[in-house]
Amino acid sequence: MKINFSSQSDDDRENHVISEFVEFIADDFGEFEIINIERIPETDFQTPDFLVRDLLSIVEIKKVTEDPSYMQKIGSLRHDILSKIKREVENKLGNLTDNILVSINNSKALKSRGKEYESLIQNISKDIREKNDYGFSGDYGYRIDRNSEGAPRLTVIYSGFEYPSPEKLARHLKDVMANAIVQLNNYKEAYRLKDYKKILVFDHFFTHAEDLSLTVNAIEIAYNLLSSKDLDNIFLQMNKAIIKVR
Q1: 234: Cα within 13 Å, side-chain hemisphere
Q2: What is the pLDDT of residues 100-111, one digit of tens each?
Q3: d(Cα 246, Cα 244) in Å, to the nearest integer?
Q4: 192: left (phi over 0), alpha (psi -120 to 50) or beta
Q5: d(CA 137, CA 155)
Q6: Rounded CA separation 187/42 (Å)
Q7: Distance (Å, rounded) from C-alpha 85 to C-alpha 71?
Q8: Which residues, in sequence order, are bridge partners of residue 60?
Q9: Are 200 and 234 within 8 A, CB to CB?
Q10: 241-244, strands of its sheet edge to edge
Q11: Which residue has the higher pLDDT, 222 or 167?
């Protein structure tokens, strides 16, 4: 079977996800030599992403992410900024005499360069030297704990960091899902595609929640919270595979 794009998205990721999705469900519709995918042009009203006429499907792709501010914090962790802060503070302090834990609050995403970053390094180093228990640097606050037991070392972490739960992720996904339903319904009605299925594909994108069951549970919870559940199917692209959620 060959997949052909009669028109594509400007987002290569979307093109990849729709290709994976079509390959996944095509067998349920019989044998095809070729399946054509159309990128739906954007109009004055919100439109879904793709039309797959051979499979009688209108498809909207949405990314599974936490809220933007939370994602920035995850980005701080993923880019190992905490390790960079640790190395630079160690260089300023020289030889350590205590086992020191610096807990930076998680109210704001960390930056890896610039004036705010340099000030944070300077202030943490200063407060450690002066044996302060806590300190501030602009919008950042931090606590300093010391322990004379064990080998002297420095550890830098986020304090109060919250691991995601299905319920927390579902609150964000509920709004995303509701918007997708509006897009799919509007397009189906406008073009009188009576026999077409309305399909939502979630793309697991740049998120620290690598647990498949957590993401599936979040989608299920979000779906059950909707006042309108007017979708035919929901799929999830995750860990290099497509799964059917409902």
Answers
A1: 26
A2: 989 888 666 777
A3: 6
A4: left
A5: 18
A6: 11
A7: 19
A8: 200
A9: yes
A10: 2-5, 34-39, 50-52, 57-64, 197-204, 233-238, 241-244
A11: 222
Distance CA 234, CA 69 (A): 26
> pLDDT tens digits, residue range 155-177?
888 775 555 678 888 988 999 99
The Cα 125–Cα 156 span in angstroms is 12
- The rounded distance, in Å, linking the Cα atoms of 51 and 225 is 27
Rounded to whole angstroms, the Cα distance separating 156 from 100 reads 9
Q: Report the greatest alpha carbon distance in the chain.
A: 74
Structure tokens belonging to residue 80: 């190992």
Give CA–CA dist 198/184, Å, rounded.
6
Q: Alpha-carbon distance 232 to 44, whole Å? A: 25
Tokens of 13: 């990721």
The one-letter code for the residue type at 177 is M
> For the chain, what percentages of helix, strand and coil (3-state, to nearest 5) are there?
40, 25, 35
pLDDT tens digits for range 68-94: 555 555 555 555 788 889 999 999 998
Element (H, E) at 242: strand 241-244
